[in-house]
Amino acid sequence: MKPRKVKKLDPTGPMAENAARIVLVRVEELRSFAPRALDPGAAKVQHDMRIAAKRLRYVLEATGFCFGRPAAVARKRTKEIQDLLGEVHDADVMLPRVAEHRAALIAADAAAVRGLTVDAADLEPGIAARAPHRTSYRGLDVLEVHLRARRALLFDRFAELWQESEERGVWRLLCRAADTEIAQADEARRAAERAARAREALERAERLRQEAAERATKAAAELAQAELEAGD
C-alpha cells in the first residue's frame, strides 16, 4: 500500500509544522480503513490498516515531542493496533499453509492407498486406515482450530481497542494538537511578513528623510550663494 502524499511540506520551515502536516495525513489515512477493517473477514483491509498504523507510529516516535501528551497517547495506541493486526495477519498467512499442507498429505495418502490395491476392482474402506499420514490430520485440524480461535480473539481485541480510541478522542486530540502547530506557524509567518513590511516602510521613510535633508542642505547652500552674489 502506497502512503498518501503529504502536501505543503517546506524543508526550510519549522519542523513542528512539517511534522504536523505529516501527522494529519497519516491519521486520516489510518482512519480511512474503518469501518471496513471492523469486518472480521476483511483481511486485506486489516493488513493495510496495520501498515498505516506503523507509518503513523514511526512519525510520532520521531516528532511526537512537538505535540505533547496527545502524541504520546496516540503513539502507544498505534503500536497496540499494529501489534494486534500483525498477529491477525500472521494467522491469515498460516491458515492457507495449513490447508495446503493438509491437501498435500491427503494427495500423498490417496496415492499410497491406491498403490496398495493395484489389481483390485474396487477399494475397501478399511484400506484407507493404512494411509501413512493418517495420524497427521488431527494435528493439522487442531492447529487450524487454534489459529481460527486465536484470530477471532485478537480481532475482537482490535475492534474494542479501536472503538475505545474513537470514544476517547485519541485521534481527534492528536489532530487538534497538529492543527495548533500549523496555526501557530502560520501566525508566526504572518507576523514576520508584517515585520518585514514595516521594516521596508521604515527604511523607505529613512531614505526619503535623508534625500530631503540633502536637498534642504543643497538648497540652503544655493540660497546663501545667491544672497552673497546679490550683495555684491
Describe the structure.
The chain is mainly alpha-helical and 232 residues long. The chain has one domain. 78% of the residues lie in helices and 0% in strands. The chain contains 5 helices and no strands. The N and C termini lie far apart (96 Å). The mean pLDDT is 92.
Summarize the structure.
The protein has helices spanning 15-31, 43-63, 69-116, 136-167, 170-231.
List the helices and strands and how they pair.
Layout: H1 15-31, H2 43-63, H3 69-116, H4 136-167, H5 170-231
How many helix segments?
5
Shape: rod-shaped
Q: Strand fraction band? A: under 5%
From the N-terminal CA to the C-terminal CA, the straight-line distance is: 96 Å
- Please identify the structural class as seen in this structure: mainly alpha
What is Rg?
37 Å
Low-confidence stretches: none
By DSSP, the count of extended strands is 0
Work out the helicity level.
over 70%
Task: Quickly count the domains.
Answer: 1
Describe the main β-sheet briefly: none
What string gives the helices and strands in order? HHHHH
The overall pLDDT, averaged over residues, is 92
